[in-house]
Design goal:
heterodimer; A: about 170 residues; Alpha-Beta Plaits; B: about 850 residues; globular; binds iron/sulfur cluster; binds FE2/S2 (inorganic) cluster
């Protein structure tokens, strides 16, 4: 008999108590975001997709030195160098396998030419494995780097060897 | 006995004892501190010091501290003396080295990201080691610009395969010194002085010697880099495989750098074996690998159907081979199949071919000497004896007298060429060069004797006669020598050879002296059919002057594995000992008539041999009578050719099989001194190609016999054959010298020599782009005098006619040639040089006329 009274008490007292909490939250500001309609602003040092940088005159910064690949802990970068028309060294193939990449940013840190950096974007879901293999063309695109206080470029013109930098 | 002498020498040398980093060191007097340190395993950093060059002390990196010396000492040029106390790691030393590095980096552009040396740069490593991360220098750096202005890169091509970037140079002079000391080339130098001193090619010259590829390798920084390796890959990503050069007969030790993702060879560097290559590679060795990567490689077997070669599978091809060979042997007997085997293949391939012919086809129709003319079909000639003598490359180093007979070393034996230079530089050796035309390698010679072509044996006789005339030999010996010689006096002999008797006397006196002697007989003799006469004359001379007791005399094997082929019995007539051994191993040995290349070709003409197997080597291009060999091979009912590329020979074949290059399988090669070396597999097989030995074994299996029960059996059999040492036999007495002279047809007055170009060898290297950058097409090389008489200048075409052929090719004028001999390289297919030759001639002669455009 005692149990029956207890159960009835739960239904009529404890349950409304719990529902009250739910009710309260209905009128509070939600903590989640209405993704993908709304997006969270990223911290300036967030590491998202890779970009390859160009000089102001439009030429590629990357000289295909292989240091990013050497620094990469996930072995995600593959490249093949070639000789450009002025005898410069540049990348014929430059690929990052984003399935392997752990977005550590070591490549950016290793790069002596300030050519590669990790941007803010993180949306690159795809339905084919091959579309995660990002090529030079995918990365040599315009980007909003200039606004980012943490990704300042120190040297803006191609290095003329022998002339000390200002 | 020999060891006693060595010990005595050792104990005779005065020594010094000093202390280095607390260790007591005793070294021979005259040893530098640096060498002493290396010998006890103390590492002192260096830039300009190189183990194979004389020290100059120009970089100051090798500082050590010596107690009681006011300043730091440069260890690479400071001799150790008794009682010195040396510190190599004190603070003062470290500060000194740091300062040196800072100075070196003053003008260094720090363009490591674009520099091909990055990752193997000595400057990079030492900078890292010493922790220099900033520069105190904030003025403008020196900049040497390139010739073209539209670039910020200051690279400059100074040779077909060399790129110079003077900004990176640290002026260690290694390149200039190596070029001068080791290679005898003067095309690179230091210009200006002080701050603007620079390395550069000599004005108006290109750095294009056959050894130029060594310069980037010894440059400690990226100032000299090679076009071949330019921007190919980072060195730390490359796979490295130790291997052996497939072109040089001394078997240079190489390291193959591979791109394993793409299954390509990327470059070849030296693996420095002091006993063989001394750390230098010829460009042929260095760039010749490119044939393995070539796009033109044969990928699949081809079978001729209705006059056209069509692609087929291995099974089909083997089926056809087996059926046709069976058909032919049933119809005509087993002696009607012949084999021409390339001596550049590895031991297993050579041995398998020999076993296939001798046990399956049961005949002796097999030969590897496809570029020799008129090989006799009889055994035990003096030439054979001469081939079977031991030779050590390192013995050249300490020879006092070196005689080179009939060899343009820079075209055939690059390593020995450099050894001879070394012997002259470090040991004051006296070199005598005896050749039918003046050769480049003679610049270190004490006397160069240019004799009339075709009188090779008479010049040897003349040397003997000169020794006798000068009274340098015993009467008894002199009598014996003279009896066998048709020529009475020295004057008569020198008259025939067209040389001055003073020069001959010089050679005679040197050979008769007590010094250690090396006599090298080269290809101009071995390929011609004067070889037998020369061998007998040489044996007589050796008996007269005691040459074989004072040193070595040898015919140098020509191809990567010629020596191996001889040792494995791939000749139609193996030596008695080999036959015994083979009989014991196989339980039988064919008693069919042995046939050399020439004899086989003659039998093909008579249609007595109607099946042929050509394993590599492209004999049509190399055999010294193109018409004869082409007709012979055309008359065959069935020809199988295995090669890397389509060639003149594969064109005629009924079945063409793609063969793997040397880098695609593990194989061993015997070099000219009989040393067996292994080349490891560097890349995977290209296309469906297979190694030659596998091809042979598959053919045998298809026919119905397996050559070996297991791979181990093959290995042990080969090992057993290779263990035979050369017998060094000499004839028991003076032998008859039978000079061969020929009538000169007045219509064709000018003698012709067919040689290799210094940047090419055999028929394959024309597929290596780097080598064709040096020389890409055939030329006819002649003296300035002859060119003037023909009224032609460099590059102009001339018509070259012989009684059997006619070709047109451009002229190359060579200053060092001073008689009327013309030279044509045989390495280029587009000009059919061998169609000018007649196999029965000792000396080919041609008529040259100007082509009017
Ligand atoms: S972010 Fe890290 S893991 Fe990704 S490519 Fe760069 S180095 Fe490699
Ligand atoms: S991105 Fe930078 S580190 Fe990577 S290869 Fe290019 S220049 Fe070198
Ligand atoms: S080019 Fe290289 S080897 Fe020659 S002096 Fe300069 S740094 Fe030395
Ligand atoms: S190594 Fe001694 S001065 Fe260069």
């Amino acid at each position: 008999m005692k149990e029956v009274i207890k159960a009835v008490g739960h239904v009529f007292i404890k349950m409304p108590q719990g529902l009250l909490v739910t009710l309260k939250h209905l009128f509070k500001k939600p903590v989640t975001l209405d993704y993908p309609r709304k997006k969270k602003p990223m911290m300036p040092r967030y590491r998202g997709r890779h970009y390859l940088e160009r000089y102001d005159d439009g030429s590629e910064r990357c000289v295909c030195c292989g240091l990013c690949a050497a620094a990469c802990p996930a072995d995600a970068i593959y490249m093949e160098p070639e000789e450009g028309e002025h005898g410069e060294r540049r990348a014929k193939v430059y690929e990052i396998n984003l399935l392997r990449c752990i977005f550590c940013g070591f490549c950016e840190e290793a790069c002596p030419e300030e050519a590669i950096f990790l941007g803010q974007e993180y949306e690159f879901a795809a339905d084919k494995r091959n579309s995660f293999l990002w090529t030079k063309e995918d990365m040599l695109v315009p980007h909003p780097r200039k606004d980012n206080p943490f990704k300042k470029i120190i040297r803006r013109v191609r290095k003329v060897y022998g002339v000390t930098e200002q | 006995m020999a060891d006693d002498i060595k010990d005595k020498v050792k104990t005779d040398v005065p020594t010094v004892t000093f202390t280095m980093d607390g260790q007591e060191v005793t070294v021979a007097k005259g040893t530098t501190i640096l060498e002493a340190a290396r010998s006890i395993g103390i590492h002192i950093p260096t830039f300009c010091w190189h183990p194979k060059l004389k020290p100059v002390g120009s970089c100051r990196m090798c500082y050590v501290e010596i107690e009681k010396w006011p300043k730091l000492a440069v260890s690479c040029v400071t001799e150790a003396t008794d009682g010195m106390i040396v510190h190599t790691e004190s603070d003062k030393v470290k500060r000194g080295r740091r300062a040196t590095l800072e100075f070196l980096l003053l003008n260094h552009p720090l363009d490591c990201p674009t520099c091909d040396q990055g990752g193997e740069c000595e400057l990079q490593n030492l900078t890292f080691e010493h922790g220099i991360d900033d520069s105190r220098f904030d003025f403008q750096k020196n900049r040497f610009t390139s010739d073209t202005d539209n670039t910020v890169f200051d690279d400059k091509r100074i040779g077909p395969e060399i790129i110079l970037n003077r900004n990176r140079c640290i002026l260690c002079y290694r390149c200039v010194r190596a070029n001068k000391e080791a290679f005898g080339e003067y095309d690179l130098g230091v210009y200006e002085r002080g701050n603007i001193a620079e390395i550069n090619a000599a004005p108006g010259q290109q750095v294009n010697s056959p050894f130029s590829g060594n310069l980037p390798e010894i440059c400690p920084v990226g100032a000299l880099t090679s076009v071949d390796w330019r921007y190919k890959m980072r060195v730390w990503l490359a796979g490295k495989t130790p291997s052996i050069c497939p072109y040089s007969s001394s078997g240079s030790n190489i390291l193959i750098y591979t791109d394993d993702n793409k299954n390509l060879i990327r470059r070849v560097t030296s693996r420095c074996n002091d006993d063989i290559d001394d750390g230098w590679l010829s460009d042929i060795t260095r760039y010749g690998y490119q044939i393995a990567n070539s796009e033109e490689r044969l990928q699949t077997p081809l079978i001729k159907k209705e006059g056209k070669q069509v692609e087929a599978t291995w099974d089909e091809a083997l089926e056809v081979i087996c059926n046709r060979f069976k058909e032919i042997t049933e119809k005509k007997g087993k002696v009607c199949i012949g084999g021409l085997i390339s001596p550049s293949l590895d031991n297993a391939s050579l041995y398998c071919s020999s076993k296939l012919f001798r046990t399956v086809f049961n005949n002796n129709n097999i030969d590897f000497r496809t570029d020799y003319r008129m090989l006799p079909n009889k055994p035990d000639s003096y030439f054979g004896m001469l081939c079977n003598r031991s030779f050590r490359i390192t013995d050249i180093d300490d020879s006092d007298v070196i005689v080179v007979l009939g060899s343009d070393l820079i075209r055939e034996h690059h390593n020995e060429y450099l050894r001879i230079r070394k012997a002259v530089n470090f040991n004051n050796a006296r070199v005598f060069s005896l050749n039918p035309y003046s050769v480049k390698s003679a610049d270190v010679a004490q006397a160069e004797i240019v004799y009339n072509i075709g009188t090779d044996e008479i010049i040897l006789v003349a040397i003997g006669l000169a020794a006798i005339e000068m009274g340098l030999v015993e009467q008894g010996l002199a009598q014996g020598f003279k009896e066998k010689v048709k020529l009475g006096s020295l004057a008569e002999a020198t008259e025939v050879c067209g040389v001055s008797s003073d020069d001959v006397k010089l050679v005679a006196r040197a050979l008769a002296g007590d010094g250690k002697v090396s006599v090298i007989v080269g290809e101009l003799i071995t390929r011609s059919h004067g070889r037998e006469a020369v061998a007998s004359a040489l044996f007589n001379l050796s008996r007269l002057l005691g040459i074989d007791k004072k040193g070595q005399m040898a015919v140098l094997a020509r191809y990567a594995n010629s020596r191996g082929a001889e040792k494995l019995g791939l000749l139609p007539i193996p030596t008695g000992a080999q036959v015994e051994m083979l009989k014991a191993m196989w339980g039988k040995f064919p008693d069919a008539e042995p046939q050399t290349t020439d004899a086989m070709l003659a039998l093909m003409h008579k249609e007595e041999i109607s099946g042929g197997l050509v394993l590599g080597g492209n004999p049509i291009m190399l055999y010294p009578d193109r018409q004869f060999i082409t007709e012979g091979l055309e008359k065959l009912d069935f020809l199988v050719a295995c090669d890397l590329f389509e060639s003149e020979t594969t064109e005629l074949a009924d079945v063409v099989l793609p063969m793997s290059s040397w880098a695609e399988y593990e194989g061993s090669y015997v070099n000219l001194e009989g040393c067996n070396q292994v080349a490891c597999q560097a890349i995977k097989h290209i296309g469906q190609s297979k190694p030659a030995f596998e091809i042979i074994r598959l053919i045998a299996e298809k026919i119905g016999t397996s050559l070996f029960e297991s791979d181990e059996q093959m290995a042990t059999e080969i090992e057993q054959l290779l263990s035979c040492e050369p017998d060094n036999a000499t004839p028991d007495n003076f032998v008859d010298v039978l000079p061969l002279s020929e009538e000169v047809d007045p219509d064709f007055p000018i003698p012709l020599c067919i040689c290799d170009d210094p940047h090419h060898t055999g028929a394959l290297t024309q597929k290596a782009p780097s080598l064709t950058n040096f020389t890409g097409e055939a030329y006819i090389e002649m003296s300035p005098d002859l060119a003037a008489r023909l009224e032609v200048s460099e590059g102009q075409p001339v018509r070259v006619e012989s009684p059997v052929g006619k070709i047109v090719m451009p002229v190359k004028v060579s200053k060092h040639i001073d008689n009327d001999v013309v030279i044509i390289p045989r390495n280029f297919s587009q000009i059919r040089v061998t169609s000018l030759l007649m196999r029965k001639k000792r000396v080919d002669r041609v008529r040259i006329t100007k082509v009017d455009e």
